[in-house]
Amino acid sequence: MNAESALRVTDLDPVIHAPKRLAVMAVLDNSITTDFSFLRSYLDVTDSDLSKQMSALERVGYVAITKTGRGRGGITAYRITDDGRTAYRHHLAALKALTTFE
Amino acid sequence: MPQWKVIVKVAIMESDRDPRAFLTDAERAAAAPYIDYPPTPKWYPPAVGAWAAAMVLALSALSDHPAVAGPILLVLVAGEGAFFAWYRRYRQTMPRLHGAPPEINSAFRRYAVGVILVVAVCVAAFVLAGPILTAGVGFVTVTVGLALYERHYAAASDAAQRRLSGTG
Q1: Looking at residue B17, what DSSP letter applies?
Q2: How many CB pairs under 8 A join A and B?
Q3: Chain A residues with beta carbon closer than 8 angstroms to that of B27
Q4: In this structure, are residues A50 and B53 in contact, taking their beta carbons and an 8 Å threshold?
Q5: A4-52 residue pLDDT tens
Q6: Mean pLDDT on B30-59
Q7: Closest approach of chain B CAs to the CA of A70, in angstroms?
Q8: Backbone Cα Rg of chain B
Q9: Entry pTM
Q10: Using beta carbons and an 8 Å cutoff, which residues of A are at the interface with B?
């Protein structure tokens, strides 16, 4: 790894870099809103695992949550925030730069 | 930089995973809102065709019979809103117009051309033959146009899935 790629590594966002959270950010970046059930099905994970991943993204302000209804019929939907979109695209650019300088 | 960040970044640097693998995963996930969707119901094209025909009749009757046509128009617009709400819930995601895989963009372009053609045919029918025939033309062109679009979209989605899974 040369100096240039080492610099790019420091541009990577540790919150987004986890594969499941990277996939979530990619889905949300290309959707207006997306339901919890869609993400769970796409990632093929359990409710608790996805909840944990989404909490990590929500904690840093990368996603916003909307809840409608209660109980079994209730829907939890997510959208990417402006900060989240900026961070995701920055992270993608850093990954692309890493592949360039390898 | 905080110590936890340094630890994570060192772990990333020492990861055996090729950055290209992360980019491939991100590209596949970015396509998901467009290509992972439940089957469109069979009733969708004729229902939208019937809705378009009703819109033509209600709009053409608005000036002569506003007391009847006005409420019908409101019902049709409310019905459209209810349909979008249902479809959003059915699909579980609402993809953005920008950012679709190239295969899906091709379907979007065909859709736009199709809408222009349908509107042009309906305007011509209205000028030449009046509202009743236009309603019939609208029903047929919208139903057939949407059915063709749905078929093309499904094929585009399959092509994108094959490309992204490395089998296309």
Answers
A1: S
A2: 94
A3: 26
A4: no
A5: 555 556 678 999 989 999 999 999 999 999 999 999 999 999 999 999 9
A6: 96
A7: 15
A8: 23
A9: 0.85
A10: 1, 6, 9-10, 12, 14, 17, 19, 22-27, 29-35, 37-38, 41-42, 75, 92, 95-96, 98-99, 102
Residue type, B64: D
Sheet of A63-68: strands edge to edge? A63-68, A75-80, A31-35, B93-95
Contact (CB, 8 A) for A16 and A22: yes
Question: Which residues fall within 8 angstroms of residue B40, CB to CB, at 6 or more apart?
Answer: B150
Tell me whether B1 touches chain A (CB under 8 Å).
yes
Contact A31/B9, CB-based, under 8 Å? no
Helices (H), A1-102: 3-11, 14-17, 19-29, 36-43, 47-59, 82-101
pLDDT, mean over chain B: 91
> CA nearest A5 in B: which residue?
B13
Contact B76, B55 (CB under 8 A): yes
